[in-house]
Structure formats: C-alpha cells, structure tokens
Amino acid sequence: MENTSNFIKTIIEEDLKTGKHKEIVTRFPPEPNGFLHIGHARAIITDFESALPYGGYTNLRYDDTNPEKEDDIYVKAILADIRWLGYEPKNVFYASNYFEEMYERAVLLIKKGLAYVDHSTAEEIAKDRGNLQNPGKPSKYRDRSVDENLRLFEDMRLGKFKEGECVLRAKIDMTSPNMNMRDPVLYRISFAEHHNTGTKWCIYPMYDYAHPLEDAIEGITHSLCSLEFEDHRPLYDWVVRETEMPKIPRQIEFGRLSIENTVMSKRFLRALVEEGKVTGWDDPRMPTLSGMRRRGYTPEAIRKFVLSTGLSKVNSTVGTDMLEAAVRDDLQEHAGRVMAVIRPLKVTITNYKEGKLEYFEVPYHPEKPELGSRKVPFGRHLYIEADDFIEVKPNNKYKRLSLGDEVRLFHAYFIKANEVKKDENGNIIEVLATYDLETRSGSGFDARKPNGTIHYVEATQGAKATINFFGPMIIGDDSMDLMSRFNENSWTVLYGYVEAALKDAKAHSKFQFMRQGYFNTDPSTKDAHLVFNEIVPLKSSYK
Ligand code: ATP
Ligand code: MG
Question: Is 29 touching ligand 1 by the criterion CB < 6 Å?
Fold first, then answer.
C-alpha cells in the first residue's frame, strides 16, 4: 500500500475528520469496449489507493451504457487485469443493472418540468447549441407539456420511434457559458443488442446522465475521474440534485497519464487488433496491461511507475525511460541471472575431452541466496555471443575474446582463442580454443588477468530458444496519421541457446540474461519449445 499524500487524499482525510463521511467508497468505471491500458492503471491505482488506506473500498463498475461497442470478452479481461495489478474490487456492478431506476428518475425530471422529448435531428441539435461565443437557441420542442413528454418518453421506451428520431433532453440553460449545460441529451434510441440486458431496452442513458446516478446509487463518496470531465461537473451535480438522489457523491478530477510515443486510445488499439497489425490485445508491444504482462512487466513495476509519476490536477507526459527504469529496479531484485546466447558462435575447446561434462553450482542471484542455485554444465562444445569474438583485437579497451587472447567464461575457466574456421564467404563459423584447468572458477587462481569475462552456453546441454525483441510500436510524429505511424519493424525474432536449467522454464518466469537484459518466458512456451520476450535491456538505450 502506498502512503504518500496527494490532493485527493487531503480532501478525503478532511471529509473523515469533519464527519462528512464515515466510510470512503470509490469506483473504477471502465467502459467494456476494449482492454485496459497503462493509463487505466493510473485510474485504478488512484481509486483503490484513495479508499483502502482509510478502511474503505472500491467497486468495479462496468459502464455499459453503450450497447454498440461492448462485449463480454472485455468484461472478463478487465477484471483479470485489475486483479493482476493487485486489487480486488469489493463489488462488481454493471451500470445496466440500474437502467430501471435511471428511467424512473428521468420520469421524475419530466414531471418537474426539467426534461423534454426533442424531435429535432442530431444536426439541428448540434447547430442550435451555439458555441462559446454565441448562446444556444431553444428547440421548438422545448415547451412540450409534462403530459406530452411523459407519453412520448414512454413511447420511446416501447420502441415506437426509430433510432435518431427523437431524444430526451434536460431542460437547463441554452445560454449557459458551459456548453454541457445547454440542454444535454439524457437518452437516445438504439436497437443494438446489449451484452447484459439483451433487447430489453431500446433507449440508453448518455454518460453525463448515467454516471452521476450510478455513483449515487452505489453510495460512492468520491468519484475520481480524469481531467476531461472537469467541465461536466456542474452537470454531474445537477443530475444528482434534480433526480433527488439521497446520497451525494463528489466528483474530483485528476490529470491523465500519457507516455511519450505511446498511444493509449482504445479506438486506435482496437483498430490495430482488428486490422491484424498486432497479434492481439496482449501483443507484447501493446501498452495494454495484458500486453505488458506478456512482455514481462510485473504489477509491482507498473504500480511503482504510476506512483512515481505523482498525482496532480494537470495532465502529464513521461518518458518511456521511467517505465523501463521501474521494471529494471523490480527485476534486478527478483529475476534469476542466467546465461543465454542470442547470436550463437560455436567454440570448440580442443584440449577438453569429447563427451566429458562437468558442472558448476551457481546461485541465481549473488545477493539473494533464497533464489537458489542450479548446475551449469561445461564441456568441449560451447556457444558464445558472436559479437564477443573478433579475430584481431582493435585496441586494449576491447574486453572480449580475440585470437591469442584469454577471457574468463563466467563461473568456469579461462579460455584462449587459437584459430578460426570460416565458411566459403569468409564468415567465421567456429573458434578453436583451449582452456586452462588451473583457472577453474572458485580455485582462487589469480596468476593472470583475463581480457574480460563473457557468458556461454554448453552446446549439448543448452536448449534452443526463440527470443523476441521489441522496438517502439509507434514512430513518427503527431502530424502523421496514427495507422501510418505503426512501426512494421517493431518485432524481431532471433534463435539462440539458453543454459540447461531453463529447459523447464514456466510461462512468465523472468530472468536476467547476463550482460543482455531481462526476459520473460512467453506463455506460448511448451515442452521443448522455449520462447522468451525481452522486457528491457540491461542498460537504458535512451541517452
Ligand atoms: P480511452 O481514451 O483509452 O478510450 P477511456 O477513458 O474512454 O479510455 P474508460 O473505460 O472510460 O476509457 O476509462 C475508465 C477510467 O479510466 C475513466 O475514469 C478514465 O478517466 C480513466 N482513464 C483512462 N485513460 C486514462 C489515463 N491515460 N490516465 C488516467 N486515467 C485514465
Ligand atoms: Mg471513457
């Protein structure tokens, strides 16, 4: 749990102190029309962390008032993602469960002369709303009688009108400087099938009407939402007041979180999925929580990142380096360190006996004995990283293997490269080397200093692995159309070798591949087929 202060907590603490509230209740209200992304994580963390430390609770409420775009797949994925982040909603509710009450409250508004059925077209309504410079014009249906409105609204519910033929509007103020108060639409007609209520309803409440009622019905004390709803607050308060809800929630806005070169619009993410640009909502390049999970991000890292960005009244944009630093910090503590060769080059130890193997017992983490240890094999046939070898050492700063020089293999021996084999194109395909028995790791040998230390995988025991690398999914700048900014080269697949201990790696186990980066075992890993995703390289690539 997080205990730093922020402006929302200050309000909450004051409300508890003055006795305005005895219990704090918040909600996270996603629209089930897509998977959650890292921006939603800010909202989730803010909602839960504003209630839990005070002994209060948070509801998950699906804001399912828009039947055209919603689906049960999203309903399930959303709850799974919230739980993965480490939070358990007290209740799981659906806005659609309140349709009857919302309808009744709308009838009350009509009876109070505060709502009317408008037969204007959508274009007429938009035009008559005016703009910031000019007041709106009242609709010619604005002065319909209460009785007529009651009858027409019921007819709307009974399906007697076509989609778009009429709407129910609040009667507030067509001259208000706040455009949201110029007789906003409360209900529209849609014959789309609803994921929860089926075809029971053909009128659906608009967000600005539904949301305050949902909050009030659930007894939400503090309704936390992102900044774009600030101008909607007067309408929020109007709806709660005029529908005479007994419990009065308070809306408080906070800044949205954006990450550089990361697009979080659900519409865009859905388009990527539907057009097959990515492998799904959980594609490791996606900024969705399911994508980040598959990539290997941990919930702890995401929470730490979101909390480190601070909560304020203004929208903020942070660099991807902050997100990467958070996951590196977390994995540096918890990921076992192992050896993997990503671009393999064969090395044969010519003075080591064919068929012989020996094993070095190596802890997974130098400072964390609780992570255990494993046996690392060594033998005549090895792989090293192709770019850890060069025939002729360019200068003394070069701390890897070259002809005539000696390097240490992590946890094993010093080896010296003596000869190379090349293919017909002159590419190096094998290095012939010798080892020195005396230099065995742990023997205390210090007579010579090796020219660096490199990693390796013993070839007969190591396992072949598919290793995925990811670049930014979005490139270019804001002036370009989003789809054209999709980086077609953002997924690179390499085939390497990992040490024997990783043969049974379970989905989502995370490792540091020494000298390279942090990697997640992809859930597609099965039996002999190992797949790893690079989460982040060891060092930041941002300069
Ligand atoms: P998108 O713009 O990606 O489609 P949305 O806001 O329409 O997202 P909702 O399902 O309505 O998606 O979001 C649920 C809650 O999450 C809302 O209260 C919204 O304010 C909040 N939220 C969404 N994105 C962010 C963000 N980047 N930063 C903070 N809060 C966010
Ligand atoms: Mg929304």
Answer: yes
